[in-house]
Amino acid sequence: MGLTLNGQALEYLYAKYNRRKFVHPDPLEFLYAYPDPLDREIVGLIASCLAYGRVRQILNSVSWVLERLPNPSRDIRTASRDSLMRTFADFRHRFTTGEDLVNLLLGMQSTLRRHESLRNCFEHYRRKDDETILPALSSFVDELSLACESRCNSLLPSPQKGSACKRLHLFLRWMARKDAVDPGGWDNVPISKLIVPLDTHMHRISRMLRLTERAQPDIRTAIEITGAFRAIAPADPVRYDFALTRLGIRSDGDLKGFLEQCAA
After folding, report:
1. Which sign, positive or negative, has the C-alpha torsion 131, 136, 137, 142?
2. 236-245 per-residue burial string, b: 16 or more CB within 10 A, e: under 16
3. What is the pLDDT of residues 60-119, one digit of tens each?
4. Are the CB atoms for 18 and 242 separated by under 8 Å?
């Protein structure tokens, strides 16, 4: 069966699934409780960095961390390394230890003290003539990693090393876009330059749609798939990310029906 991207089918899928009632269980839901963008960006980075493994474990881990950071931005700015180590000594999320988490928080602390917000840090490195957000993201990761002497690499992969950086692109989608699902907060980041967060569901569907033939879900594959979506929605190439991944996650997702709609 020949397949191609079908804008009408994608819009139907967006209208059906891009609703807040379909967010749970997804770590994105934690961001809705934080109206202040300074808190939301902290929560978003923590939630996205821990978004690997079983979804129930992800939600439990993020919830455990946030219970100990009732005022995320203020708490991180004022905490000492010793106090953070005491608070998160017992934390464990798969292969992420309490020390790994503390190193991430200290990286955020250093960045906040220098730039006032994570958004300002990202904007500091973003250039208008960059084709995508990748150069700014690489520098953003470098700065966050600097304070922890690269000891939080497992939570902050760099696109310079070939990783698809799915969790970081997920974070940028949450913060840069604003619709019924994505809460926004980083209004200056052009959503036209975002990269698709490439997880196993998106990679599988993209291969079915012939958006890529690459078997390795790396940054080159993510860029290739994003280019295909940009041809349909040049102003917002990650517009359909949430809805498409519901097809691979939800039991009522009709992937076969969607592929039939896209049949050439």
Report:
1. positive
2. bbbbbbbbbb
3. 999 999 999 999 999 999 999 999 999 999 999 999 999 999 999 999 999 999 999 999
4. yes
